[in-house]
Recover the amino acids of this structure.
């Protein structure tokens, strides 16, 4: 096994959930980079979340890229520019905001605008737990949907629907949008059609000219499932959801907090077992 491209999820995998990198993972990632492996973060987080600290953690050793918002925003964090943008259209996004406002009032919608600095939200009071968690990643401008509804001209890297219902999920499916459900938290991540972490890994492999048989991805959640299925070597951790464990070729008997990513890198990349 010779790995040349390693795609790493953040929350619940390489990083603490909602936090910074698990310290045990820093040195192995740096060693993999020094060995010539393209290590890229592929995450649901926004590219500029303060917890990412990609430069501080040495991830700019070679190709300083992050595939953020589940691959909708591929961003060069050295040059501070978007390399590939795959947003949800304004029309589809407005439909989902309208539904939350007029038909499913228990659902709260959050949208990462494709300017990297703006979030449109469906309400500004009585926030759900999901909203509180997500707000920890964002320090930009918040805009209330009601204030821009009549002149809605925004495209979004990702939408999040908190306190989501089965009926609302069916509305998303009708639009043909990509989506991943965190059932435990009742959070739905929504992306443009065909845009997911597998899309991101395929794009990165083509950019770096890495053959499929030399690709690996490590993840824990439902939004990781497409890339775990896509790569040659999908890796699950002890805290990964069952769906990810089921399709992964490799399972690490450690959680993210216990340094599962570090063990995977050490065993399958640094020592090439």
């Amino acid at each position: 096994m010779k790995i040349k491209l390693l795609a790493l999820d953040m929350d619940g995998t390489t990083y603490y959930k909602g936090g910074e990198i698990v310290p045990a993972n820093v040195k192995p990632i740096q060693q993999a980079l020094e060995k010539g492996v393209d290590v890229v973060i592929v995450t649901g987080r926004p590219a500029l979340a303060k917890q990412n600290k990609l430069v501080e953690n040495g991830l700019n050793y070679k190709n300083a890229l992050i595939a953020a918002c589940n691959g909708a925003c591929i961003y060069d964090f050295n040059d501070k520019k978007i390399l590939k943008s795959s947003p949800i259209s304004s029309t589809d996004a407005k439909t989902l905001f309208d539904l939350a406002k007029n038909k499913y009032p228990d659902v709260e919608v959050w949208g990462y605008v494709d300017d990297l600095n703006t979030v449109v939200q469906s309400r500004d009071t009585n926030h759900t737990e999901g909203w509180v968690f997500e707000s920890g990643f964002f320090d930009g401008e918040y805009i209330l949907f009601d204030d821009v509804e009549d002149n809605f001209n925004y495209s979004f890297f990702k939408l999040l629907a908190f306190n989501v219902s089965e009926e609302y999920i069916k509305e998303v499916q009708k639009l043909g949008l990509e989506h991943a459900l965190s059932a435990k938290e009742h959070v739905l991540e929504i992306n443009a059609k065909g845009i997911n972490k597998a899309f991101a890994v395929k794009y990165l492999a083509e950019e770096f000219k890495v053959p499929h048989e030399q690709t690996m991805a490590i993840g824990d959640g439902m939004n990781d499932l497409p890339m775990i299925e896509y790569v040659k070597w999908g890796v699950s951790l002890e805290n990964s959801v069952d769906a990810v464990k089921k399709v992964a070729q490799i399972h690490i008997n450690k959680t993210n907090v216990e340094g599962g990513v570090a063990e995977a890198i050490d065993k399958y990349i640094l020592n090439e077992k």
